[in-house]
Amino acid sequence: MTLASIFIFMRTIIYIDGFNFYYGAVRKTPYKWLDFKKLFNLLLNDSNRIIKIKYFTAIVSGKYDKSKPARQKIYLKALQSHIPEIEIYYGHFRSNEKRAPLANPTQNNKYVNIIKTEEKGSDVNLAVHLLNDAWLNLYDCAVVVSNDSDLAEAMQLVKRHHPEKILGLIHPGKSHPSYELRRHADFFKRVRKGTLKIAQLPETIPGTKFSKPKNW
């Protein structure tokens, strides 16, 4: 029996916190036209067989840039056309006017009205899928791509009730990784710009009309 014949592949599902990933890894870079499957194949071991990539995001607002939703739509269509393993789950953005204290208040002006925009639903959706897929035994290894400590409880529950499952954490950025997430992860990796650069989608997705927007 050869070594190749006994090599064991781990069914691996990737769970991407889209909002956290965008602001942590690709915002203000030229690498937004990203091929997620290629990226994670570069980051993970040969034993990880990616069977699904679950991408949790929300449709962006066009309030300040009317072309932004259209660019996002093209990208999401490109991902679905190019990566058969990807599944996209939508939360939503919510904007509210709130009164907040000024950083440098004066005697006559201590507060200001602001518009606070929050992405809602994606972290909850990700946590539910992570747990439910474990109970359904859909993966051997789950990889959480986020630095949101709100996901720590879901990771902790997976490790408590499914100790045979491998949990990975991929940190999307240069900031300090969440201790609460790392303590429940069996391995940890960081997304770096060099890897983003070589993990880009084709300028035009083969067999489609979806092309990288000029200002993407």
Describe this structure in words.
By secondary structure, this protein is α/β, with parallel strands linked by helices. It has a domain at 7-93 and 137-198: Rossmann fold (3-Layer(aba) Sandwich), CATH 3.40.50. The chain has helices at 18-26, 36-43, 68-82, 122-135, 152-161, 179-182, 193-198; strands spanning 10-17, 48-57, 86-90, 92-101, 111-120, 141-145, 166-171, 187-190. The strands form two sheets. Strands 3-2-1-6-7-8 form a six-stranded parallel beta sheet, sandwiched between helices. Helix 5 (152-161) links the parallel strand 6 (141-145) and strand 7. The longest helix is centred in the middle third of the chain and has 15 residues, at 68-82. The protein is globular.
Identify the notable features of this structure and list them briefly.
single chain, alpha/beta, Rossmann fold, six-stranded parallel β-sheet, 7 helices
CATH architecture of one domain, by name, is 3-Layer(aba) Sandwich
**Radius of gyration, rounded?**
19 Å
- Along the chain, the helix and strand elements come as EHHEHEEEHEHEHEH
Largest sheet descriptor: 6 strands, parallel
Anisotropy-based shape: globular
Record the strand order, biggest sheet.
3-2-1-6-7-8
Distance between the termini: 50 Å
CATH class of one domain: Alpha Beta
Low-confidence stretches: none
Which fold name corresponds to the CATH topology of one domain? Answer: Rossmann fold
Per DSSP, what share of the residues sits in E-state strands of 2 or more residues? 25-35%
Structural class: alpha/beta
SS element count, helices: 7
Mean pLDDT: 89
Based on the structure, what is the oligomeric state of the protein chains?
A: single chain
Fraction in helix:
25-40%
Please, what is the CATH homologous superfamily of one domain? 5'-nuclease
